[in-house]
Design brief:
510 residues; alpha/beta; Rossmann fold; Luciferase, domain 3; GMP Synthetase, Chain A, domain 3; six-stranded parallel beta sheet; 30% helix; disordered C terminus
Length: 510
């Protein structure tokens, strides 16, 4: 539905609620703010197909800014707040943004304003920026002429290399025309105008941004957490009567590691659908979540690239434990290195056909590397997995993370899934390190619940724990400890940053 129509029907209904501060943006305010910014962008000469970028914390006006670009037929790039100056400059330049918006709290943006024609700053100003509030207030709260649908152009999180911009086709459909995500959510999760959606993750990530925008199209209220905290998330579910939510597995792990009496303190019975994605989930964690919240967990596998959508509900998962589901959008093909299709049960690179096409912006080589080597039009997100006889897909690991030790392929996700549920582990990464004899050896880096316990005894305990459940060759030979792992707030682990340290600084030894 058109945002303006919803605002006309329910002007005073909360569109955005900030869970921490309690600040409310009504549908009327959301509509008018996005219209004012759209008018400003139009006055600055931006037309459908042009580009804006923004770098904001989970701010009350975040979704209004996204809606302004969406209703103007623009491409818009939401940028991670964790990026450094060089990374920020690269993305803004690479996407071709004509406007850049930041908040005063974004020191990276304030110190080095990107080279764009117009820079706007919320909640204060800095050299090189105009005041967002002053500039936007000069424009009317009415729609621009010839509104049409824009689209996000987001960048991969850079966990395996430099971020890649995923540029979808711009439909320029009339404003309010439902897209594929609206139809998927309607089919799978049945949201409506009475729904309350909790978004606990940073809005610059693909899934939170797209789901919040789409939930608004249903007329639903979106509750945004400024920052995830396990107990605060449970409190928000109870306080706002949350019906739908989206999570990453690390959030489940952190909620489950709360004391039992803390978890029991909150009523989560309003939840109708708890969706999770973005990272693998250990089987015991999902079993415990279903036991706690009931069979309302929905899992999907997809990517910013949008070339597939794989889905499972709780019922199917319980009979195919470990699956990420079956294809709802696209069809799966499991292939070896030469592109030959593999039989059920045999792992290989997952390719998807008959789904939406994508390209990596201004990078033909990366686009070509994502395609089927035999030219059948299939594309991959770089993951390895297999399909069972019933068509359910199981992820083994990312192709880039596979360890080859003594000629044997090892997928570190298996050991990570085991160690993640150990009661003394808060987070874990497993990867290959140089080994003179075997080529690579399996290494674990663990964030313990208490650094006081870090040391040789805990390392030996974790290795033994893993060996009790997996073949020894799949388990770490060594465990190092860190107070925190470089994990993206969206749940993705920057394993590359850890792995590079070992390959750069540690000589190969037997």
């Amino acid at each position: 539905m058109h945002l303006g129509q919803i605002a006309a029907q329910t002007p005073d209904k909360p569109a955005v609620v900030m869970a921490g501060s309690g600040q409310v943006i009504t549908f009327r305010e959301l509509n008018e703010e996005s219209n004012r910014l759209a008018q400003l962008l139009h006055a600055e000469g931006l037309r459908p197909g042009d580009h804006i970028a923004f770098m904001l914390e989970n701010h009350p006006l975040y979704l209004a800014i996204a809606w302004a670009a969406q209703r103007s037929g623009l491409y818009y790039t939401a940028i991670s707040t964790r990026l450094q100056q060089e990374e920020l400059a690269y993305i803004v330049d690479n996407c071709g943004a004509k406007v850049f918006i930041a908040t005063a709290s974004m020191e990276t943006a304030a110190k080095a304003p990107p080279e764009v024609p117009l820079r706007l700053m919320l909640d204060g100003t800095a050299p090189g920026y105009d005041s967002y509030e002053e500039r936007v207030a000069q424009h009317p709260p009415t729609p621009i002429e010839n509104e049409c649908e824009g689209v996000d152009m987001l960048y991969s999180s850079g966990t395996t290399g430099r971020p890649k911009g995923v540029k979808p086709a711009l439909s320029k459909a009339p404003m309010g025309e439902p897209g594929p995500l609206y139809q998927l959510l309607s089919l799978l999760f049945q949201p409506d105008a009475d729904s309350v959606y909790l978004s606990p993750a940073p809005l610059y990530h693909a899934a939170p941004l797209r789901y919040c925008i789409t939930m608004h199209r249903f007329g639903a209220t979106v509750v945004v957490m400024e920052k995830f905290d396990p107990e605060s998330a449970l409190a928000a579910i109870e306080k706002y009567g949350v019906t739908h939510s989206q999570w990453v597995p690390t959030m489940f792990i952190r909620m489950l590691k709360l004391p039992e009496e803390t978890r029991a303190r909150y009523d989560v019975s309003s939840l109708r659908a708890a969706v999770h994605a973005a990272a693998p989930i250990p089987i015991p964690i999902k079993e415990r979540m279903i036991e706690w919240w009931g069979p309302i967990l929905h899992e999907y596998y997809a990517g910013t690239e949008g070339n597939c959508f794989v889905y499972t509900n709780s019922e199917d998962w319980l009979t195919h434990k470990g699956t990420v589901g079956r294809c709802v959008l696209g069809e799966v093909h499991v292939c070896d290195e030469e592109g030959n299709e593999l039989p059920p049960g045999e792992p290989g690179t997952l390719y998807f056909g008959n789904g939406p096409q994508f390209e990596y912006h201004d990078d033909d080589a990366k686009t070509a590397a994502s395609r089927d080597p035999k030219g059948r039009g299939w594309s991959t997100l770089g993951d390895v997995g297999y399909v069972d006889e019933d068509g359910f897909i199981y992820l083994t690991d990312r192709r880039a993370y596979m360890i080859i030790s003594g000629g044997v392929n090892i997928y570190p996700q298996e050991a990570e899934n085991v160690l993640a549920v150990h009661p003394k582990v808060a987070d874990v990464a497993v990867f290959g390190v140089p080994d003179a004899e075997m080529g690579e050896a399996v290494q674990a880096v663990v964030q313990p619940l208490s650094m006081d316990e870090a040391g040789p005894e805990l390392a030996a305990e974790l290795i033994a724990y893993c060996r009790d459940q997996l073949a020894h060759y799949k388990c770490p030979r060594s465990v190092d400890f860190r107070p925190e792992l470089p994990r993206h707030p969206t749940g993705k682990l920057y394993k590359r940053l850890l792995k590079d340290e070992y390959w750069a600084d540690r000589p190969a030894t037997a």
